[in-house]
Amino acid sequence: MLAAPTPLVLLKLPTVKTRVGLNKTAIYAGIKAGWFPKPVKIGAASRWVESEIDALIVKLTERRDHGKA
């Protein structure tokens, strides 16, 4: 029997800022530069997929641990 897929969780900007330790300007600069996940737009609101933010944190940690800039 296959397990049910894990539901996606969407995060608001204040939560994303807390998780990654960046301010709004740095987050949007990262999106423009292509290294930060793009938000999901819901009307005028922006939300980020939690698993994508978690993957970014892992990627940044791996870079740190392997001496890559």
Mean pLDDT: 94
Helical/strand content category: alpha+beta
How are the strands of the largest sheet arranged? 1-3-2
CATH architecture: Orthogonal Bundle
CATH class: Mainly Alpha
Give the total of domains: 1
Q: What percent of residues are in strands? A: 5-15%
Give a brief outline of the structure.
This protein has about 70 residues and is an alpha+beta fold.
Written description of the protein model:
This protein is α+β, with helices and mostly antiparallel strands and about 70 residues long. It has a single domain, classed as Recoverin, domain 1 (Orthogonal Bundle), CATH 1.10.238. About 50% of the residues lie in helices and about 15% in strands. The protein has 3 helices and 3 strands. It has a 3-stranded antiparallel beta sheet with strand order 1-3-2. The protein is flat and about 40 Å long. The relative contact order is 0.17. The mean pLDDT is about 95.
Task: Lay out the secondary structure.
Blueprint (H helix, E strand, L loop, with lengths): L9 E2 L1 H8 L3 H10 L6 E3 L2 E5 H16 L4
Antiparallel strand pairs: 1-3, 2-3
